[in-house]
Design brief:
By secondary structure, this protein is mainly beta. About 10% of the residues lie in helices and about 65% in strands. It starts with a helix and ends with a strand.
Length: about 190
C-alpha cells in the first residue's frame, strides 16, 4: 500500500507542476448514523490538482470516531483518487472516478480498499450547482465487511472563483454489515488556486 500511496503522491506532484493545472485543498466535516443507531463524526482534508482536460488527482486523509465513545473507536483513512469529468455539450457534466485507500482501525488492524464513483454536476443558477452520484466501495480482503453502495446529493455554492462551500446528504447501503449502512450529512469547503 505504501508504494501505491507514494506513486499517487508522485503523480499528484507531477500533475501540479504541469501547464494549466489548478491545485486545490478541501476540508470536510460529517455526521453519520448507522442502522444500529451508532453516531459518528468525521473530518477529512483533501489535496489535489485539476487539469485542463478535466482530470482530477487527489489524496485524502481522514478520521472518524463514534461521537459518544472513547478514543478506541477512532479509525483513519488515506485515499488516492483519479476523477474524470466529461464535457458532452449538455447542461450537466458527468464524471467517473476510481479510488484506492488504506483504512487503519482503532485496534491497529488495517486493510486496503477500492471504490468506483459515477455522477453528474448540474448547474442550477449562477454559482449554484447540484452534484448527484453513487459510489461502490469494497475491501480487497473479503474478511473485511466494508462493501457498500452510496447515493448522494450535494448542493455547491461558488462564493467566488477560488472558494466553494457545500452541503451533502448521503445514504449508504450494505448487505454485509449494519455498520456500513449509514445516513450522513457533510459540510464542505474547497479552496482552488
Amino acid at each position: 500500500m505504501k508504494k501505491i500511496i507514494m506513486g499517487g503522491l508522485l503523480a499528484l506532484s507531477g500533475a501540479a507542476l504541469a501547464g494549466d493545472n489548478k491545485p486545490f485543498v478541501s476540508l470536510d466535516a460529517s455526521s453519520e448514523k448507522d442502522t444500529l443507531a451508532s453516531e459518528y463524526i468525521g473530518a477529512n482534508i483533501t489535496i489535489g490538482v485539476k487539469t485542463a482536460d478535466k482530470f482530477e488527482y487527489s489524496v485524502k486523509a481522514g478520521t472518524s470516531a463514534k461521537s459518544t465513545s472513547s478514543s478506541d473507536t477512532i479509525s483513519n483513512n488515506l485515499e488516492f483518487k483519479v476523477k474524470k469529468s466529461f464535457d458532452l455539450g449538455m447542461f450537466f457534466l458527468p464524471y467517473v472516478a476510481v479510488r484506492i485507500g488504506e483504512k487503519l482501525n482503532y485496534n491497529t488492524t488495517h486493510f486496503t480498499h477500492y471504490a468506483f464513483d459515477a455522477g453528474a454536476k448540474v448547474p442550477l443558477s449562477n454559482g449554484i450547482s447540484l452534484d448527484i452520484g453513487t459510489r461502490y466501495r469494497n475491501s480487497f480482503d473479503s474478511a473485511e465487511n466494508y462493501k457498500s453502495m452510496r447515493y448522494h446529493a450535494m448542493f455547491l455554492y461558488d462564493v467566488d472563483q477560488h472558494n466553494t462551500v457545500g452541503l451533502r446528504y448521503a445514504r449508504s447501503y450494505s448487505d454485509v454489515s449494519d455498520y456500513e449502512e449509514r445516513k450522513s450529512w457533510r459540510v464542505h469547503y474547497q479552496r482552488s488556486y
